């Protein structure tokens, strides 16, 4: 079934498609360029984005390069259930974040970053933990998208990997640099329309050209016992469960999601997230089927690199116009998330590094804008450099998501329970990250008492995940009951078993340890936090600047004076 040579676009066609795509995108953003830029508009569009743009931006940001490459990898590795384990769980995490998101907006309606709200709730150390984790995560996300661009260009054209990475990086930076988040949202809408239109044509076309249902039936023998089982235990333990846990952390800890949460009109949060849930799931599960088709056809990834599966399928089973259409589809998907990462990174540097620390609550809006733009330039350069490492996209996703798992419980609990302290938040995250690292890289042998302790912590983590997801839609009592039942039900099976699944063990350990440490330390505290203070402490930067110019005391200054 597999051909030895793959169709490639010519150099001139490839350059025309790339420069045409990024050129048109850049021209679109010129219509929203402002001579005197507003800081709050640059970061969150003054929290006034409507339903259509918000939903499209959420889907386009979530449907990124990894949605193509990692979903296809999952289908190729795990067979029938692979695409479901990637697409469905990712979609559900969008659904589960919106109830918590509404709480964040209710408490701090003028926020720009989640770290900014954490500072108002706890203090600088907790804020920096959130900010640094997002800086690292967004840089890795940039790397993943630029890696996808390089893989795409190197397989489908005579250009090499490095040239593809450089063109994608320069193109995304060009149209995002001046208008920031507004440019990201505006282009996301157009990119999503192009992606959906292309996917509707490309996926059926590849299926038909590969042989259709007859080919599938004739090649069922290529699937091993686990791959042919829709309820494969291997797929659940190695892909489904770790990814399910990882994307919950992405939903809570990722600034690209939080930025859209703080940008959409508050009354439109629910319909926006519900629409994004359905849209993401439909698109990504469909794309993951390309990996499953590759498995049926007996395709072998070039150089053993799983990132090459989808480009190979396109070049093998699509006519020239289909390859060009597919090329734009992937470029649009990776660009929509790369520009979101740049916007997120700039917002973190503007708000959490400069605004709240370097400027000590008295930021100059013009200086903030330059901080944001310089951050985009540096981040693009760093993303291009990291992309040269050519790391496995699926592995990177699970690793970052699991690492972020250490902050999920402390963040959510901080906005519902007034006893959580800064010390409890900080200690819980640091201890959880340390133990996650020990388990993930097997720095200690997972045998004997050590393995049992980690399995116990991981089982607690499973209860925490189940409890948090229940708490999103039900009350605290029901959430606690569900969490306890999951813990008790899993404990006999987890002991002596989870140690063989390092990714899952380490991911759940991060959740379990952070929750236990945070709760125990908070119970020892006599502090009580007034949540009404958050709205007073987290304000629009333009409002604060106007207050400073008029001689009034800003909330940050008033807080300093009180202390």
TrEMBL record:
InterPro entries: Na/Glc_symporter_sf, Na/solute_symporter, Sodium:Solute_Symporter. The chain crosses the membrane at residues 6-30, 42-64, 84-101, 128-153, 159-178, 190-210, 273-297, 317-335, 368-387, 393-417, 424-443, 449-471, 478-498, 504-523. Keywords: Cell membrane, Ion transport, Membrane, Sodium, Sodium transport, Symport, Transmembrane, Transmembrane helix, Transport. Pfam families: SSF. It is found in: Cell membrane. It catalyses: L-proline(in) + Na(+)(in) = L-proline(out) + Na(+)(out). Its main location: membrane. PROSITE patterns: NA_SOLUT_SYMP_3. The keyword Acetylation does not apply. The keyword Phosphoprotein does not apply. It comes from the Bacteria. Belongs to the sodium:solute symporter (SSF) (TC 2.A.21) family. This is Sodium:solute symporter family protein.
